[in-house]
């Protein structure tokens, strides 16, 4: 999952970079590998700072001051294609036509086909293994077909419709055309989230796009609206907003994992409060716990795995009328582990990140609640820590069902063999994690927890739970190919091969020193 944002200020004498930077800080939980901002000055010149690491590693005050201009785009990255090399940090840029910068959240499932088309037919040079570079070049190629020296909104809508026709997978995108304005669009299934909001200022209305509403809230924008599946919104530098649904009958299937784990609880995505969904997941989980452990269960205390499971775990405890306690203390300076690259780093980090307080575990039967169990990295360590802290019995409950299938739409889970639940029964999973029992949410329970707040959403991308992929182009052959490219044990090999020429065309990382 990546985070994207774009901002256009009504007052052309102000700078967009400070708020883009703040916005990226609020999206940090969506990507920790790289961050970047590109702004556009009044003469149509672009200014870029991007590099590997967290937002705080890439930017400082002097750098932000170099990013002049009242409009810009920003990105935080969690790679799902290519490598974590700095050369694939976003936003990406092509000078022809018109000077386009681009930021993408999601993943394409027909990247190989697009790459071939761009090479053989469009004759566009692709410099990295990033699928986002392909999306950008399809957009550029479509815009180029106008043959015009200056384009208008119609041309942009036609170019985006052209993307929808050929690019399959999950994609929420923002773009900026130099001297023209900013654009947001969302794939025809609306798998990945994006919305936009406005703010009155003395010179007119400012506009902001963001992956999550929390960014717009935090920057005092109001009237946040999600983009519809297959919709594009253009805000030009004269502050005219034009929006169009480019797919007549889109099939809306937003990613349900946004509600389980990815999004911040204080975001409203597609009209649904993530916080409320997590409370509902906690309640539904309580029913499963009762079913599996019986109404007279021997659980003394419920303990969440910080951070994401807290909201749901509290509600599970409330519904079961069992004491809730924060037994694991998390080091607040260590980021999310699931989105870190490589199993070795994830494992090491989990161990350093948590500390179990014996006074909450010693001599007790504990029910540990997490939002999801994916590779089992967290659960394995947590269960052991609970035992080391003196727990008698350790039950483990997950607010999401067992994850048994890869994700292909922007979450880096490319290999079923890395998933702890793959090909295992619940008892086998419990054994693998060292728990006395594991209890999973049912898929019906999860869907109902989100659906109750969103009767307008009839279908969800729940592919990691049920193996049903909404877009075309996902078959056994593709899944094998993806696993070959991106499974943890292969990723290292690919990255080594690319090294050391991963500096990127503009050597932007040299500016960072
Ligand atoms: O089974 P695993 O492969 O370990 O993945 C699942 C765990 O990873 C996530 O936590 P993370 O530390 O990324 O973020 P959080 O602090 O938001 O909970 C998630 O909340 C689970 O705890
Ligand atoms: N997680 C994402 O959204 C990743 C975007 C894009 N596929 C990349 O790897 O950069
Ligand atoms: Mg967690």
From TrEMBL:
CDD domains: GPATase_N, PRTases_typeI. It catalyses: 5-phospho-beta-D-ribosylamine + L-glutamate + diphosphate = 5-phospho-alpha-D-ribose 1-diphosphate + L-glutamine + H2O. Keywords: Glutamine amidotransferase, Glycosyltransferase, Magnesium, Metal-binding, Purine biosynthesis, Transferase. It is an enzyme of class 2 (transferase). Pfam families: GATase_6, Pribosyltran. Pathway: Purine metabolism; IMP biosynthesis via de novo pathway; N(1)-(5-phospho-D-ribosyl)glycinamide from 5-phospho-alpha-D-ribose 1-diphosphate: step 1/2. It comes from the Eukaryota. SUPFAM superfamilies: N-terminal nucleophile aminohydrolases (Ntn hydrolases), PRTase-like. Its EC number is 2.4.2.14. Transmembrane segments: none annotated. GO terms for molecular function: amidophosphoribosyltransferase activity; metal ion binding. InterPro entries: GATase_2_dom (IPR017932), Ntn_hydrolases_N (IPR029055), PRTase-like (IPR029057), PRTase_dom (IPR000836), PurF (IPR005854), PurF_N (IPR035584). Binds 1 Mg(2+) ion per subunit. One of its GO terms (biological process) is purine nucleotide biosynthetic process. PROSITE patterns: GATASE_TYPE_2. Residues 2-238 form the Glutamine amidotransferase type-2 domain. The active site is at 2 (nucleophile). Mg(2+) binds at residues 308, 370-371. In the C-terminal section; belongs to the purine/pyrimidine phosphoribosyltransferase family. NCBIfam families: purF. This is Amidophosphoribosyltransferase.
